[in-house]
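Table S2 (continued). Query chain:
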Amino acid sequence: MTRAPAIWALGLAASALVHAAGAGALLISLAPDPLPQQPTPESSLSLQSHRIPRTAAIPQVAEGEEAFERKGKTQGLAAGSIPRSRAQPKASAADSLKPAAAKAAAAAPAQAPANRLASTAPAAAPLPNADAPQTPAPVAQPDTAPLPQTAPASQPSPQAQPQTSPLPGAAPNPQQTPAARPDAPRIKAALAFQGGAGDIDPVSLAAFQSFMQPGDAATQGDPLRDGVSGILSAVPCARLQVAFVPETATLEVRGHLPEDGLRSPVLAALQTQMGADITVSDQMRLLPRPQCGALAGISNVGLPQSTDQITNPLLLGDDAHARVLDYSGGERLFFDLTAPDYPAYVYVDYFDAGGAVLHLSPNALVPLAEAAPKTALRVGAKAAGDPGLQITVAPPFGQEIAVAFAASHPLYEGTRPLSEPAPAYLEFLRAQVAAARADHADFKGEWVYFLITTRAP
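Corresponding output:
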């Protein structure tokens, strides 16, 4: 039993030696063989230099060829008799100038001529057109004096040769006339459309030409004007009009909208049509329903509102309100307007937010009367003793409208109720206008409306 541990120890020692010998042999077999020295490539560069011969240039004097002078050949003219003739004096025909009459330029009125019922301030008066003085131009008479007859110094003989002698050359003595400076005003030249600081937007330039020269595209249609008109007419319950101001390259948007949320889309669409170099100015007001809807019935009465944009190419869209009247609570409601340029009967109505119409004129207190052309009319009473309705502004406050109808013949006899529903009254008025046109061949009329803004005091 004592020999067993010794045997195990001897076996383990022998195994360790065997493994160590195997590991050593393995390491020897895995060791890399040294690489033999490889021959390195050899390169060489051969340089050769050559001396460049240099020579100094010797300055030489340029030899010119002298041109031989030759005498010019002249050919004499044979002397002969000089033919002479006698000048007969004739009176020059004088062209008479016809006097041209100066064209008188009439001053254009400040407001659009079609809104004949536009309200005027109490102190305002229409300015008469001043005729320019016409002075005929004086007729310039030419000097038609005959030339004096001078006899020749000598009468040549047919057989005699005249003695010719050269005339001495005499230098002329010119007389210089001092330059006169014209008294002309100084103006600064500039382009009709200058645009922004950089390059001009072609869209803005096309829009400028469309407003300033609308006849150029009249035969083929004007997409820009049609596009602007389409934008204005697409807004529901609104009356919008644009006016182009060429001096400032600004497009003013006038009229009213039913709600404020439509303002930004309208301005953005118009700015796209105008380009980057034309400013779109917002002058739109708010006129909510049902007042904006009442305008549709008013326009269907059968009377024209205005014809401004027919003669003014700078306007596009429906004619909007003629004036904005502002009142505070407790104030009297009154305003002034001007009759049209023909004898007319004027009807003034007030459309409130409740859908009713109040007849300001005529009524039981203000009878119907024919107004002379372009006379000032007062609607309402300014003081307690003035004729007309005594109207005091009271709540509810907001936006309302007043409409003035003008007709060359009375539309109906008597008076209407002081207040009545607006739809029924407008339908009655439409029938009366149609009857007046049928009865009177010379019938004419028009209408205009005002925005009335009331607010708390």
